[in-house]
Amino acid sequence: MEILSKIDHAVLKPEMTDKDLKRECEIAKKYGVASVCVKPCHVKKAVKLLDGSNVKVSTVIGFPHGAVTTACKVKEAKQAIKNGATELDMVINIGKILSAKLLYIANEIRKVVDVAHKHDVIVKIILETALLDKAQIVQVCRIASGAHADYVKTSTGFNGRGASLEDISLMKASVCGRTKIKASGGIKTFEDAYKFIQAGCDRIGTSSTEVIAEKQK
After folding, report:
1. What is the four-CA torsion angle of 8, 129, 162, 192, rounded to 10 degrees?
2. CB of 34 closer than 8 Å to CB of 55
3. Which of 60, 65, 163, 174 is most exposed by smallest CB count within 10 Å?
4. Domains in the chain, CATH or no CATH each
5. What is the pLDDT of residues 134-183, one digit of tens each?
6. Distance CA 80, CA 76 (A)
7. Is 5 exposed, middle or buried (0-12, 13-18, 19+ CB in 10 A)?
8. Which residues are catalytically annotated?
9. In the 8-state DSSP scheme, what is residue 217?
């Protein structure tokens, strides 16, 4: 099973420097991952570092807590696209879903998706499954699918536990094949990645690409 081409190589730790970014982009090119997911401030530099490769540049919106306003997320998306990002991973407003403000969530997702899709940019919606119950996970997945988001994603890796196979099963059932699935958070070994791909994930978010690649060999 090919795993490396499904990896979004994460370069999101707050202490990551420009030098770290250069090193991580070299790793991404070496192993032929799907994308490098970088902080918004690193998008332009990552685009230059990956020029000539097939590795895409993705970035995060409303990261890591999802608490900025919808207008801020839209502006972040526009700036990221202008800087060269071709994939956006947006954190939902977790407090709003916990408050059952479903129209707010739907409007937020739709506005970012509309901006992105005008430029053929992919949108992945981060649920933060560790903070939601099963019913809320189903609700967000259905809303995201209805708003034509390209992926639903488990977590940021910065809030509580990471992805679980139970999450993936529930998310997959909720989108009924209309939206792809990305697992992220706590995936650090080849065995972990393999299990999530087997469970139906189309992408894996991890910073442990080298470890996974060496085991795949």
Report:
1. -70
2. yes
3. 65
4. 4-216 (3.20.20.70)
5. 999 999 999 999 999 999 999 998 887 889 999 999 999 999 999 999 99
6. 6
7. exposed
8. 89, 153, 182
9. -
